Amino acid sequence: MPTDKLKKKGDTSSKISEEQTEAGSVVLTPSESLEDVWHEWSDADIFREKWDSGKPEDPKTINKTPTVYYEEPEGKIRLPESLKVYYWRRPTDFLINTVPTVVENTLTFDLVSPNHHLLSSEVMRWIISEIYIVWKVFHHPEATDQFGWKPWEHIYSLCKPGKGHMPLYNSYGKYLVKLFWMGCWRRITVDDLMPFDKENRLLLPASSCRSELWPMLLAKALIKVINTRPHIVDDNRNKMLQLSREMGDFTFIHQLTGWIPEVSLINVVCQRQTWDFIRGSIPEFVHFSEKVAHKKVPRRTSAHDYRTHRPDLDKGNPKMIVCASFYPNQLHNEPFVYTNMADSSETLRRYTLCLPHSHIVLLTRTRSCPLELPPPPPPLPEWKLIRQTKKIVIRDEPRVIPLSKPEEFIAIASPFIDQNAKSSSDPVTEPVEKWTTPRKLLYKAPLETISETTEMESQVGLDPDSTEVTTTCGNTVSDETEVLLIQGCPNCGPGGQPSTAKSILPEAWVELEDFPKCFSRLLVFYNPEAYPHQAHRSLLKSSCARGTYYLYVDSLHPFKILISFSVLLRWGETESSDIQSAPSPGLLQAAPYHWKSRQCQPPIFTIETNSFKAIVLNLSPGRHVFALHANAELGYHVHLCSKMPFFFGDEDTIMSQCTKESLRFTEKAMSIMRALSKMVATFYDKRGRNRQARSTLEEIYCPKEKTPLEKWQIHKVFSLALYYMLCDALGRRMTPQERFAIMVLTVDPSLLARAPRARSPALHEESQPPENWNDRHPTAEEVKAATLLQAAFRGRLVRLVLKSSKSAVKGKSCASSVLSDMWSRVESDTDKHASTLLWNMFELYDKKATLYPCQLDEWTKIVFADYSVSFPDKATSWILIFREVFFFTRETLLLPKVYCTIPHSRLHIINNDTGEELTKLITRIPPHLYQPNMLGYTFVAEAITTEWPPAGSKWTLRLTCTREPLPKLSHPSPLSTFSMQEFQDYYIPNKKNIICGYSVKVTEPVLITIHFKTSCPHVMIRLSILDHKEEMASATGQGVTVIPVFNFLPSKEEEEEEVEEEPLAPSCTVEEENQNISPTQENEIKELDGSQEEDEEGSTSGKSDSAADHSQPPTETPATPEHKYVVRAEVLRQSWDLDDTQLAFAHLLSYRETQVFFPEEVADSDTSSNEEQIIEVPAKPNKKGQDDKEIHGGSSVPKEETSLDLTKANYTLCVAVDKNQTESIEVKKDIERIEQIKAIKRAWEAAEPGRAAKAWQLRLNWLSQFQPPNDDDEIPAEEPPPPSPPPPPPPPDDSDEACSPVPFNAPNIPIEQLLSIVVPPMDCTPFIRRKQEFPTMVDSEMEENQRRKRLEKIQAYQLEREQLVEERLEKATTRKERMKDLLKQYESQQAAMLQEQQKFQDICMQQNQKSSDNRKGSNNRLKKKQEDKHTADEA
User: What's the predicted TM-score (pTM) here?
Assistant: First the structure.
């Protein structure tokens, strides 16, 4: 727990300037903050809590004035932006003549009247409204006292923890608040420093009782929790938008109760679905008379309405809270923004709510009937009921029956109903001086009485519907609503008893059509205690928190699961509040997951929040597996709740569940097996029960859904699956009686003809021809006779099967007894054989179609096996971890997955029959359908690491497939010990781009893995294995490449002995040696050995650049009398560029290796030079491999023992074999070509003694002419060279001196100086193209002419541009004038047209007037005639 901060009494108040209004929490780094995260709640810690300055508590000194005060360790809280803090005060500073208390009125409270100045803050409105909502929910009449919730019970001070505790006032200012955050109840420490603004108004909610502190303390703790959200301030945004973003996804009900909120948008399109959900979640308003008509209930106090039993209550404990909320910018994303916002604002005003004052409201009940029943019709006298005549009304049009509008209303409860009218008439309180006031300021709560008729008077001009709703708002509140007892205020009577009472949470009826206009979100809070199955996962880190979890659901019914996600994005105050520095919101994604597929599935839901959000996931019946990926800045908490069982955890936990059959599969299989068992039991029943059992079985295995197969085809599939199941259950060859019984049971005589008897050895043996027919072909008469016999036998079999299946004959009784014996084997393991029967149906059915719904669940069924090996204790940077051969007995869809602590590990899979490596998806092996083969598949795992894993860590290979059997390992247990030989050397560039070549010889078949690495990671290299210059396997890579496995075969023993007798030569490849000999010698070598060079060039030029080219199976190499394997590495695309230092070193090394043929000259050169650098070449391994670096069980030679300069271009070759085959392999440099060149040079020198010396002398003389002279030496005159003395006699042929004489007159030039000689470049002037025959010097006159020409070109371009611009301006002016003329013409035409229209209208009016006058005259005349006629008739 963080150390408490105490402050002296003289510093109890603090003033904050306007520039420092944003000062809140102290600045903490993420690493420090996560150590101080609020601890989980523990009652034991409350007992041990010290409430004073750290000394033992003394009850006598509790009420005395303390000398020090407690201050929060996190600093002062950050208030919303709409509230500006001016100073902070303690309760003793602003409460005069009143003793501060935490709780004074324990019956009720009023948080609206004293806090009108706080309603501009969205956070404060939500705090007040949500406290009221929780009080309303937990204090309904049906709830018992033990479930009553009181807001002050979240506060602890000088009290013992427990239900119904009462916190006391702590003069030291330390309080603990219990709130739900990040998945558990936590303790939040607050002090009693209260913020005030310039007008001396408290900026925290206060109750009507002045001395009560619990609203302020609880609000401080809630604000501390909401401050963990990222705080983003943008001055460019709309002010109204900033106020609406104060809450975001945050809800205080979650912190006060721990209930999980689900937020969904309210849309007009889904209005009916919203009504159905709300109607089924909250009580419904019904009249008492309607309720009595269905069930007699006790008389309630209200004669008009009756509240039914709440669907979310269980013995008084609520399980669900339904709320709604609205925001000022709730329609800003839709078209016609201002129109919709105006409609929403007008609709809210009809229900006495204000759109800018957004908050949350409680949905209490629904209503589908009028508030008051219509009066009953007056009773008719009995005489009117006799012979009632039906009145017939004749109409000229069909009668339209008007449709009555349904009564659909939702009751909302909010403390801010009717508050807008009241707040407008509040008197303005007198401002209090800021600096001249005494230390103790008088705090007054504005509790003036407001008339409730103000709002009614302002709504006289509204429509009748709105007037009705407003009128019923105050009169239709249920009688069980709690009343607010005001205590400790001016309205209280003597003795502190309340003298007035009013509704604590007024209600209003909202019409369903207006509900989507008023509210934008629906919030449903679920009680987690109502869910018996729950799962939690939490992670708090100082850096980015990431995690992947798996969800397993298997159910026979529709499944609902509540998933909540809490995130921690900010802890402590950030130094900058820019948008760029704001952390990204937390993210939780869930997608279907299958271990047999690497394909990413689209997510079924995504939760993105900066505080807390939940979602209800509805799943169809069946088995589902999901992968949940959580990501947050500092931490997250995932909580899952459901009423049905599920599994949630890591991969191993879920995979163990996926190995079982799904519930739907088991239910379907067992239903088929039960029906089948009943049919077998009643097979020989004479009362006809077998027919009923057969019809029941057909109804079960014939799917009700429409399938591509007909009913008879499904019957064939079921019969064949049943036959296979019985074959597996018996585990032996079936007798003819058993086969006949199966045909009678299935009524399928053609059953055995359709069965491919790979599973039935009996039919396989019977299908074999007799021995005397092995070499004989039947005649036409024999074929015809056999066909007639088969037709007769088949007809008899069909008749016998049909007759036995229908009537109780002897054959049926025999079949019944046989079936009973066979069925006893099946009943020994019913579950297994039921699953086998259903699986057989799936396999025999078309795989592209679905036979039963449970077949979809089997995609998630898996079978897996783990193979683990330990890492070696020590090794080089590259290690071979795993290499084994697996055999597949059937077609299998398999997914291999590696679990390793080393990040850079790779898995290779090679088909041993073809020698090809399976394709990889980047570095992973995708799911592949493996076919059975002869030699199996080799799995090879290798890794590259710089830091060795800890001791005891293991590498694990997991093979996952659909069904058993799994692939079999060639050994009982995997091998994990390998022996490695490592070779390092420098890279010397050459014309053929060959890096190195090593010969490999084995004495027995050996599987070898070869790894090659270069010092430059960007080099494209190709590693190949040659056998007699024929490429057997190859691989390419960038910087690193590997041949996973290759089977080296031994050669004849005679060849091996000859190889052992050959002496070792210095380290030099064939191409390097051929590169470094003199030009004359090179030409002679090409003439003498041209055929070998052409063959080598052809083999090199014919190589492929593919990444993995296994042209021949590694384990099926044809048997040859001799194998000559060479491992060669080469550079591709000339991608290895050396710098000057590396290139000079390579030239020097190449020169020294070239002088191997002249050891004496090398010695003379070394003694004459002053070289101080010593070049060491690593020793080459001998034939037994004693100098190689062997790794027995993972041991290796340390890197410090190598003599290579790692700053120079070098390479590393590693060869890995099994530990028990270490002595069977020999790897060394390929020196065959070097020995051939040495033999050729010996032959030349023997034929012409002194040949090498002459060539060396000519080379040195040619180079010496380019050697720069020393400054101190005088240049001597050219003198003819003295005559060369005769060459010395050659030494004996058996010494190396015969081929390396040193000429006596050779210039004594050091090797480094020879390499540094710069040969002048070749004169290329004859090849340069010229404009003139002779070059001329440019003088000032020519320069002036060239400058003048350039100026003329520039001026001509400028003139042409100006003309073009003028033309464009003239055209634009002309177009404008024409447009003006056209506009004038159009205006004149429009005016003329209007005049003509007016004339036409006047003429039409005149004609209409005349026609109306004529009609009136004619009517008058007609009327007069009728009157005259009527008078005449009367007379």
Answer: 0.72
